[in-house]
Amino acid sequence: MTQPSAVAVLLSDLFPLVWSGLITGCLYALGAMGLVMIFKCSKVVNFSHGNVAGLAAFLVYGLSSGVLLQLSWGMAVGVTLVAIVAVAVLTYALIAPLVFASDLTATIATLGIGLIAQGVTLLVFGADIVALDLPVPPFRATVLGLRITGYDLTVLAVALVTIGALFFVIDHTKLGIAFRAMSDNPFAAEVCGLSLKAVHIFAWTVAAVLGVVGALLIVPTTFLSVTTVAVFMLQAFAAAVVGGFTSLPGALIGGVLIGVLMNLFTYYVSPEYSSTFLLCIILVALNIFPNGVLAAAGGGSRV
Amino acid sequence: MTAPTLTASGLHLSFGGIRVLHDLDLEFRPGEITGLIGPNGAGKTSLFNCLTGAYRPEKGAILLGDRPLRGLPPAARAAHGIVRSFQTVALCPDLTVVENVMMGLARNHHAGWLDAFLPLPRGRRERAAMRTAATAALAEFGLVDAADRFPAQLPPGNQRLVEIARAIVGRPTVLLLDEPAAGLNDAETRDLTRVLQRLATPDLVMVVVEHDMDLVMGICDRIYVLNFGEFVACGTPAEVRTDPDVVRIYLGSDDD
Amino acid sequence: MSESIGLLHADKRSPADAMRLFGGPALRAALAVALLGLPLVVAPSWLFTLGICFANSLGVLSVSMLVRYGGEVSIGHSVFAAAGAYTVAILEVRFGVPLWISLPLAVAVGALLGMAFAWPSRRLSGIYLAVTTMALALALPEIINAADAWTGGYEGLYVAQALLPAAPMGLQRYYVALLLLFAGVYALARLRESRQGMALLLARSHPAAADAFGTRRTWARLSAMAISAGIAGAAGASMAYASATVSPSGFTLWTAIFLLVGSVVSVYGLTLGRALLGGAFLTLVPQMLASSGAWIPIFYGCALLAVILVGHYAPKLRSLVERRGRGRSAP
Predict the structure, then answer these.
(1) Which stretches of chain B sit within 8 Å of chain C by CB?
(2) How far apart are alpha carbons B107 and C205 in whole angstroms?
(3) Which residue among A156, C70, C244, C288 is least packed, with the fewest CB closer than 10 Å?
(4) Is A270 contained in some domain?
(5) Which of B48, B97, B98, B117 best probes binding to C when mutated, by most C CB atoms within 10 angstroms?
(6) Nearest Cα to C63, choosing from C198, C296, C179, C227?
């Protein structure tokens, strides 16, 4: 404590950065958990995740702003959720036969879906940047020198509720138990009296919903364009890799870690090289803990 | 010239607390055909995997002659002449039959990357030499006609023979055969028996895991009986056949 | 998911010599001769497009090679192509080095980069390579712009040095790209016959068996990636020379994804005809849809899905039809 002023300055910078990193990290975690859910049960990396979620954000914008329809915000989100779940089920129906033949081919097929989603977004909404505001309570408070906004609390609340609900479903419902058992043995689901496909559809649907929630909540921090959500999803990929790609708690921790690290990097080093930094995180993570942070910490992966 | 003996002592292997192999001592001698029998799940294939280096036993020593093998990766053990066949046929579907057999010689050849991409004499000589040796190995099984076909075009029995041809083509010092007669018809099993007996020379340690008792009793000089990861008997076929423990395992349970 | 990265069903169902096909040797020779003679009959403006088509074909070949021999997908081959392209461009612009010296260097740079990025995921399943290479492809434009003193930043570099002093530049661009494509196809045909190539194929379908015969898994993964990235480096050099320019916009994540689309459309073929099919798809579709850019990803996505689904269902349909036919001919 020789230079209290320097420390104070550092802390006054650091705390808000970590806090806002934590907030966006929760959203990366939502995206990452969707990827992990799909990968855990069907061994497919869903490369369409980002583009479909991006399409969802645009749908909400289009339905609520009058570009397509002039619905209330809640209605727009509801209609979008239904549409995106339908897209997820349709996607799965299309590639389901591939999943059982070759996970690599199915993974490539998801790239095709992603291309189509990207093209449709471009076709309907164009390449322009649009503004999408969320009806977030206009709240603002300062706690211990930390500025907390209504957006922060909304994100935290939504993320906590969503993730809590997900863990509850996985721990306590038949579908969830079958899902957990399946990552050890693909035929475990049949023991529980459920078909593999039912569990797969469960995972794809939940992943789609998580993606929509994450995409909608990330938009207020930036603007909405064709690439916004795809970039967001790259962070989600990184979070999934850091978490080991097969662990939901790992994805959660990975998301928060990526959120905080990215925030610190953009503030202290440079905002221009964020993708390069993300690449470095992925490479380092693969080298140091190839099975995820939780496995490295000795905790193993429960779910 | 005599091959070294393959010995192991105090071999322990477990997966997640489940004991797979427990305190095994064994001695596989050159010039003999050693049988390894036991009910399903007794640990026969796991033992093979320990010997080839695919699994790492927690305790115990494995020696080839006086050379310790424990800790060496599979490729290094292959370099010492330990080869195996697999329980399920492990032939590459994109390679022809003779090319699959040629892979058994890969470790003896060293043409470089330039030879791989350019028509240089060294690479050509290597391929021709490998092909000649592989064709000779196929001839042992009467499969020369199938040389340029793909594995999937052969009946399952012949695929198994191709796999054994791949194992022996590199003149190994230790040959571990995992259920070589599985899926063979009677005529093919007779071919196999003849080949195995011909292979039993003083410069080869041969170990056969097999469920076909007629085959095992017919060709083996010594038989180890494995049950729940432990040896319950070891001796000549006659001794094993009358061993009360073995009789109990094979007659008292529903396995096999 | 350690060893389960699936075989591609295409080879699972047709173990027949799917790799050396697309017509017999006579047909292939005819195709090669036709391409060599094309400048005699085709308008010069088309030669430029065809040169880029050949360069893209080589890029498609590099992606297909990785799928065939490594059983892995990369969504970052644009990076290795960029490495090759910038090697050629920087050596020419800064040091005046001609193509015949910079080309081998471009291949080496691509291969080394490929190995470096396969290294972290050498023991992991294929999806990690896909994710790593995707992040790499996204980071690439940033890195190129950061090094703008060398790379020319957004504007890129202009490649114009003639290989033969007297010949017209348009013809040189065409023939360099064509001959590089021939070389790539030839080298891969040789590889298929070589010990190393066969070992890679065995390691892809049965890693444990390859291990037991002395082919280490790490060696196989790194080798497949190095060869594929080396070819991508050559493709990049070819793109640079054929199109006369190198800029970051030519090597984005989309470039990488499109290379994969081309590879799928060519059914991962390693022959001249298949590579050309994939390359032509990548070169001609954007030209035809130039007025309506949004349709390009849609068209690519649909083509990708269509080829994959046809590849999946065709063998089943064929066997169904055969069974029907047999049933009818039976008394």
Answers:
(1) 52, 54, 73-75, 78-79, 83-84, 86, 90-95, 99-100, 102-104, 106-107, 109, 111, 113, 115-119, 123, 126-127, 130, 150-153, 166, 170
(2) 18
(3) C288
(4) no
(5) B117
(6) C227
Do B22 and B229 form a contact (C-beta atoms < 8 A)?
yes
Q: Which fold has domain C9-288?
A: ABC transporter involved in vitamin B12 uptake, BtuC (1.10.3470)
In a domain, A117, yes or no: yes
What are C109's two structure tokens?
Answer: 């740079």
Name residue, tokens 């940047």.
A129
C215 → chain B, closest CA residue: B75
Find, among A265, A275, A222, the residue nearest to A27 by Cα: A222
Nearest to A136 by CA among A159, A155, A119, A162: A155
Hey, what domains does chain B have and what are their CATH numbers? 1-81+172-256 (3.40.50.300), 92-171 (no CATH)
Chains in contact with C via at least 3 Cβ–Cβ pairs below 8 Å: A, B
Residues C36, C79: Cα–Cα separation, whole Å: 30
- Measure A8 CA to nearest chain C CA, in Å: 33
Residue at A201 is within a domain:
yes
pLDDT, one tens digit per residue, over C309-329 is 888 888 888 888 877 776 655
Q: pLDDT digits over A229-282, tens only?
A: 777 878 888 899 888 888 888 899 999 999 999 989 988 888 888 888 988 888
* Tokens 């992966």 sit on residue: A301
Q: What are the residue boundaries of the structural domains of chain C, listed by start?
A: 9-288
> Is the torsion defined by CA of B72, B76, B80, B86 positive or negative?
positive
For C98-162, the DSSP string reads -HHHHHHHHHHHHHHHHHHHHSTTTTS-HHHHHHHHHHHHHHHHHHHHHTHHHH-TTT-EE----
Of C304, C309, C311, the CB nearest to A111: C304
Inspect the structure and tell me whether chains A and B have 3 or more CB pairs less than 8 Å apart. no
Distance of CA A224 to the CA centre of its chain: 16
For residues A29 and A38, what is the distance between their CA atoms, to the nearest angstrom?
A: 14
C202·B100 Cβ contact <8 A = yes
Contact C301 A275 (CB under 8 A): no
- Domain limits for position A185: 15-135+150-226
* A221 Cα to chain C: minimum distance (Å): 21
Helix (H) or strand (E) holding B170: none
CB atoms within 10 A of CB A124: 14
Q: Where do we find the tokens 């870690």?
A: A257
Q: C216 vs B75: CB contact, 8 Å cut-off?
A: yes
Kindly determine whether residue C126 and residue A104, on different chains, have CB atoms separated by under 8 Å. Answer: yes
**pLDDT for position C58:** 96
How large is the ipTM?
0.85
Give the residue carrying structure tokens 């849809």: C289
What is the average pLDDT value for chain C, to the nearest integer? 84
What pLDDT is attached to residue C176? Answer: 92
Nearest to C245 by CA among C307, C157, C178: C157
Residue indicated by tokens 């047709």: C14
Structure tokens at A54: 């991006």
Q: Tell me if B74 and C211 make a contact (CB, 8 A cut-off).
A: yes
Average pLDDT of every residue of chain A: 83
Number of Cβ atoms within 10 Å of the Cβ of C172: 18
List of chain A residues whose C-beta atoms are within 8 Å of the C-beta of residue C115:
none
Q: How far is B137 from chain C, CA to nearest CA, in Å?
A: 16
Is residue A178 domain-resident?
yes
Work out the burial of residue C329: count CB atoms within 10 Å of its CB; fewer than 13 is exposed, 13-18 middle, 19 or more buried. exposed
Total number of domains constituting chain A: 1
In this model, does residue C47 exceed pLDDT 60? yes
Whole-number Å distance between alpha carbons of A92 and A96: 5
Query: What's the rounded Cα separation, in Å, for the pair C187 and B115?
Result: 10
